[in-house]
Amino acid sequence: MRADTSRQCCDCGAAAAAAAAPRRLTVLTYAHFVIFRRTKPDPQSAVADQPPTLAEDIDIGPLLDAFGQILTAYSQGAFDLPGRPASVVVDELEAWRLHAVLGLPVAGHEQPAFRERSFSGAARAFAEARRVEKQLAESALTDLRECLWACVNRVHVAVQADIEADSATATQMKRVQQAIQGLETGAVKDEVLQAISTIEHISRTRRDQQTASFTQLAERINVLVTELEVVRRESETDVLTGLGNRKRFEVAIERALHLHAISRTPLSLLIMDLDGLKQINDSLGHPAGDMVLARFATNLSKVFLNDTDELCRIGGDEFIALLPGTTLELAERLANRLVENVAAMAPLAGSDGPRIGVCVGYSEVRTGEGLASWMARTDAALYEAKARGRGRAMAA
Questions:
Q1: Which residue among 79, 174, 348, 388 is the one 20 to 30 A from 85 at the CA level?
Q2: Please, are residues 391 and 358 in contact by the beta-carbon 8 Å criterion?
Q3: What is the pTM assigned to this prediction?
């Protein structure tokens, strides 16, 4: 009887395990469907006696929203990196946020199937931005730490030299005092002369050590200043064209206005917008559009030759030239020359390829005029030029 009962229990356990295995597979398949499709399955397709599971209550929407909020919060704290302005980081993370939340495609990346997301791509973009920022922060901290230790080392050397000098001076003076107390005039003279010689030697040694320490410290500071200047220039340079970026322009125009208020010398501004770049991007691809932007930047450098001219790219196809010492008449001649040079640029895909043009709004700052008013006036001239057709320059 015991053997039969045991056999029956084993049979029942095996049957239960066999029945539970397909049920667990069904539950996992159902959870995968709910999480990644964001839709509830047809109740008729579920196993009739399947118990409620946690997967039935999970909605991927809040997870996507939270992920998007993380990308947004991180991009708000972006800053300029060597060769990678903050605006580029913000645009890239925003593109991945829209892709993760809404499924919008990301330029330069293959679009997954409908309603699917490339979360790995978004994660890689986030991780890469964080990695570059971490490297920059570590490099800056390392330089600062080395500079501080150099200062500490120089101070230590100076203090140690003072201690040794004080000790040697004290010893020599003690010998002079002993000679004086002994009333031996010859010995007194010898000890005094020896003391003077020792103190002079100590003074020269200390001066030489201080000079060497200051020289080493100055050299290290010069290196740091050079490195910081390189980083500053990289942060203010547009990587594609080699011109200044928006940050560089904002600093330059504020300084130029301050100098103008003092010197009253002419100061002109040109705002330029390329025509036909979108057509080139659509027909030949973004690499061709980037090539056009680089060629246009070369044209700018050939037209605006003064060392004080500030040439900047402040947007996708928007450029600015800030011209200290330039009157409105000269700015007009330069703007028209630029329009002619751009019109003569050879198309990228042969004689039948798409061409570009440039519209220019230009103006000279008025006495007492603020930055916002001057920019708005020049920008209005640009829009008037664009309204009249491709390849025009209008004064404000």
A1: 348
A2: yes
A3: 0.48
